[in-house]
Amino acid sequence: MAETTITPEEEPPALALPFIFLGDHVLYILTDLGRMGIFLFSALVGIFRRPFRFRELLKQLNFIGAGSLAVIFFTALSSGMVLGLQGYYSLHKFGAEGMLGSAVSLTLIMELGPILTALMVTGRAGSAMCAEIGIMRISEQIDALECMAIDPFRYLISPKFLAALISVPLLTAVFDIVGIFGGYLAGVGLMGVNSGSFLSGMQQSVTNHDIRLGVIKSIVFALLLVWICAGRGYLVQQIRGAGFGAESVSRVTTQAVVLSSISVLIFDYLLTAVLL
Amino acid sequence: MTPSTPENTPDIAIEFDRVSKSFGQRNKKHRVLNEISFTIPRGLTTVIAGGSGQGKSVTLKLILGLLYPDSGRVLVDGINVPSLNKRELLKLRTRFGVLFQGSALFDSLTVFENIALPLRERTKMSEDEIRSRVMATLDQLELSGHEDKFPAQLSGGMKKRVGLARALQLEPEIVLFDEPTTGLDPVMTREIYQLFDSMQKRLGYTAVIVSHDIPGVFDIADQIILLNKGEVDVFTDVNEIIHSTKPYIREFAEMTMGDLFTRPEKEKCH
Amino acid sequence: MSLMKHTRLEFIVGVFLVLGLLSFGWLALNLGEVPWLSSSHRYIIYAEFDNISGVKSGADVQVAGVVVGKVGNITLTEDDLARAALQVDKSLAIPVDSIASVKSQGIIGDKFIQLTLGGDDELYKPGATITDTESSVDLESLISKFAFGKVK
Predict the structure, then answer these.
(1) Which of A4, A28, A132, A249 to mutate to test the interface with B (most CBs of B within 10 A)?
(2) Closest by alpha carbon to B161, among B172, B151, B174, B173?
(3) pLDDT at A80 over 90
């Protein structure tokens, strides 16, 4: 962007400077939020625009969903096993090992499954998504799309949204199952908890409401992570302090991953508080 | 939409009418364009030149409606671009072809897919028609045999040619070139210019080339628009620049075209 | 080659979707209660109580300590009685002289519905209403009776 001619402007009084700085910052934050809001709206509308890019959706499902299976599997197995062990030691003190199945499955379905899946997908697919879109932005590929009168949302962004909204809940379900299996492995296999009491405890304590809460959480997290990661990449040139070129993309990607992880954790609390 | 202005004769493709544009925050505002006005004739090649940071790319983005001016009108065929809504803007853009600075080829698509993209997305052509059309373009631009390569595997000059091929697929009336020779060596630069010239002559589109490659790009220019410190000067010949009496143009000419007099005469083809 | 690549992508995505949906299905079927699926091996029978305080939707229905079903919706009838829908296993036959009672697991445990099956040859049909019921024991009034010595 070209900038040379500086228009002369009056120097503001020194006392006003903090207010100018503050006001400027508030204005920027509101503008930024507004841009993100418009981005979210356009991306959601883009899902329903025709022609639908089915192949791109498949590619994104492959990348976000199928590609994350291995990460999800190992994360779920290890956290499930840890839950099984920890739960056993805590419950053993009260002679309540029979509650292990219920404790492990409820923790996984309502909290750990949705959260860890969202964090893993953010780290794996969200960062890549942000960098990809950011690079397309700075190398003018998105401008090129617009100049060919191709809606970049329908073409590029919305398939990612749809793929994330489909993939993350399914990955969460896989996480839950593998995690419960891990808990079973640790509790029943290693610690010798009665298999029947583990399974029946699990079946009796988990209700539709718990599963619904998990599903709602995973859908909200999916939307959050794809919104923040894709949106930050898309707006890379409008983010203050991001710099230029390749550096701006790397900064914005880091920022997007941090922001989306924090939002997932905050929204987890909010959703639990509202829906539990 | 704004009605045509009286001076908007049919042979004018694009007109800037007292356009201003600034960037930056309130206490350090940079005025890039200061009430500039010029016209770009239809069917000819116009070069928008100027040092770096003089607002050349900004003018292109204003024409495409990717940026909005702070004041003034940008007219394309008498239509005021900033006043268009999103749909009208998309419709207008179908009449443009754009070759971006970095070619802006899609990294994840092959050369063939890149060139076929506008046809696939914007037309109802069958895959066979698209194939034969893209192959013909590839042939014209001496790119045959490279259709299955990815942009990352191409040289800078080839990328530009693929970019041009893509820009020309929808038979645009106006083709915009943003710094088309950035990163190319002098030999490649000359080849690319010759290619631009021959394609423009063959297809008769209005070409607008933004470049800081002075004076090389002047060889193919029918009109030169010089942007400097927010002001604009229009020339139809390089000699006018050299013989200009305005001090900043003289300064600019000496800085950028010191070697013009020593250059062989054959390069001035028209 | 290109076809291979394409079908490969579809295959992988297909595997992912099937895996995800199966996991989800397992969660829903095994752990949750899917009414339109579980109703296939259960039938609904109603029971009307004077007082059903403490029994929640989803509570167990037991016969001789064995869980045979769950409590569905609980509504108030026109006669101001509490009407509970009991989803019980199809294999369970309930004679018409059976009694439904509200019981607790221990003194502070969860409330559940206990069915005491009768010996009649005639059986309740699905959708019928059990009127022979024992309501919740009101612990507080019981304690106060003890406290004020009104127990006979």
Answers:
(1) A4
(2) B151
(3) yes
* Residue C81 shares a structural domain with residue C139: yes
Asked if residues A154 and A57 have their Cβ atoms less than 8 Å apart, the reply is: no
Cβ-based interface (< 8 Å): residues of B facing A: 22-32, 34, 52-58, 64, 66, 90-91, 93-94, 96, 98, 100-102, 104-107, 117-118, 121-122, 166, 170, 229-230
Structurally, chain C folds into a number of domains equal to 2
- Chain C contact set for A177 (CB, 8 A): 23, 26-27
Percentage of chain A with pLDDT > 90?
Answer: 62
CB-CB under 8 Å, A5 with B230: yes
Contact A246, A59 (CB under 8 A): no
C151 in any annotated domain: no
Q: Is residue C150 part of a domain?
A: no
Task: For chain A, give every domain's residue range.
Answer: 51-275
Cross-chain residue pair A169–C20, CB shorter than 8 Å: yes
ipTM for the assembly:
0.77
Q: What is the predicted pLDDT for the residue at A161?
A: 96
- Using the Cα atoms of residue B4, residue B8, residue B13 and residue B15 in order, give the sign of their dihedral: negative
Say yes or no for a CB contact (<8 Å) between C13 and A66. Answer: yes
Q: Which residues of A touch B (CB under 8 A)?
A: 1-7, 9, 12, 20, 24, 135-136, 139-141, 143-144, 146-151, 155
* Residues C88 and C131 both lie in one domain: yes
Contact A113, A259 (CB under 8 A): no
Question: Domain limits at C124?
Answer: 41-144
Cβ–Cβ gap A69/C30 under 8 Å: no
Instruction: Compute the distance between CA of residue B212 and CA of residue B259 in angstroms, rounded to an integer.
Output: 15
Looking at the structure, tell me whether residues C102 and C28 fall in a common domain.
no
Are C11 and C78 in the same domain? no
Residues C97 and C129 in one domain: yes
* Apex B139 CA angle, B137 and B145, nearest 5: 115
C32 interfaces chain A, CB cutoff of 8 Å:
yes
Residue pLDDT, tens place only, B123-172: 888 999 999 999 988 888 888 888 899 999 988 888 888 998 998 888 89
Give A249's contacts (C-beta < 8 A, 6+ positions apart): A131, A134, A135, A138, A233, A236
C-alpha B225/C-alpha B140 separation (Å) is 30
- Could you tell me if C10 and C45 lie in one domain? no
| pLDDT confidence band for B23 (50 / 70 / 90) | confident
Residue C112 lies in a domain: yes
Q: Say whether both C49 and C92 belong to one domain.
A: yes
Contact between chains at A62 and C12 (C-beta distance less than 8 A): yes
Which neighbouring-strand residues pair with C69? C61, C88
Task: Tell me, yes or no, whether C89 lies in a domain.
Answer: yes
Give the global pTM.
0.77
CB contact under 8 A, B91 and A6: no
Closest CA to B146 of B162, B170, B130, B168: B162
Taking CB atoms and an 8 Å limit, are A61 and C30 in contact across chains? no
Q: Using CB atoms, which chains have 3+ pairs under 8 A with A? A: B, C
pLDDT, average across residues A113-117: 96
**Chain C residues lying within 8 Å of A105, measured CB to CB:** 31
User: Percentages helix, strand, coil for chain A, rounded to the nearest 5?
Assistant: 85, 0, 15
Question: How far is it, in rounded angstroms, from Cα B254 to Cα B258?
Answer: 5
